[in-house]
């Protein structure tokens, strides 16, 4: 593993620890602008560095989380318990990717599309049901001859 990736992983792990504490504070005081800015900044830094390092999977998850946090920060969406839970889910996914990077030096394979869709729905003010994949309708029965 090269030094740049090792440094990124160290900083990301430190950021994830800080995010856990900050999100607990944000849950207690959702209007705390300083805490919200701290959370946004850390996620933004993770996302930006992922882009620089070509870590597209982690970047996509971080970007979707950043979009939610950006809406909260600019006041276009209220901080919600559902949103914080989604941010925590994104951080858990980032941790999984970090563990894969630490083990192999490469991002592990995985499909984050459902989580990203849920984060995007939260950023857009839609409920979780709006982000769920549409059910495939049952085929119609053939009409009797």
Please describe what this structure looks like:
The chain is globular and about 40 Å long. It has a single domain (3-126), classed as HPT domain (Four Helix Bundle (Hemerythrin (Met), subunit A)), CATH 1.20.120.160. The chain has helices at 3-28, 33-53, 56-74, 81-104, 113-123, 128-131. By secondary structure, it is mostly helical. The termini are far apart. The longest helix has 26 residues, at 3-28.
**β-sheet strand percentage:** under 5%
How far apart lie the N and C ends?
68 Å
Q: How many distinct domains?
A: 1
Tell me the series of helices and strands, N- to C-terminal.
Answer: HHHHHH
CATH architecture: Up-down Bundle
Count of DSSP strands = 0
- The low-confidence parts are 132-145
Coarse structural class: mainly alpha
**Averaged pLDDT:** 88
CATH fold-level name = Four Helix Bundle (Hemerythrin (Met), subunit A)
CATH superfamily membership, which one? HPT domain
What's the total helix number?
A: 6
What's the short story on this structure?
With 145 residues, the protein is mainly α. The protein has helices at residues 3-28, 33-53, 56-74, 81-104, 113-123, 128-131. The protein has one domain: HPT domain (Four Helix Bundle (Hemerythrin (Met), subunit A)), CATH 1.20.120.160.
């Amino acid at each position: 593993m090269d030094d740049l990736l090792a440094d990124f992983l160290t900083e990301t792990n430190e950021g994830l620890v800080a995010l856990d504490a900050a999100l607990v504070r944000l849950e207690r005081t959702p209007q705390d602008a300083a805490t919200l800015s701290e959370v946004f900044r850390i996620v933004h830094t993770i996302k930006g560095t992922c882009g620089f390092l070509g870590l597209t999977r982690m970047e996509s998850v971080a970007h979707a989380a950043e979009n939610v946090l950006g809406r909260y920060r600019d006041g276009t969406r209220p901080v919600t318990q559902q949103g914080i839970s989604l941010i925590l889910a994104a951080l858990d996914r980032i941790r999984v990717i970090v563990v894969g990077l630490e083990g192999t030096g490469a991002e592990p394979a995985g499909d984050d599309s459902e989580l990203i869709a849920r984060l995007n729905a939260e950023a857009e003010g839609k409920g979780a049901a709006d982000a769920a994949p549409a059910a495939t309708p049952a085929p119609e029965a053939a009409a009797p001859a």
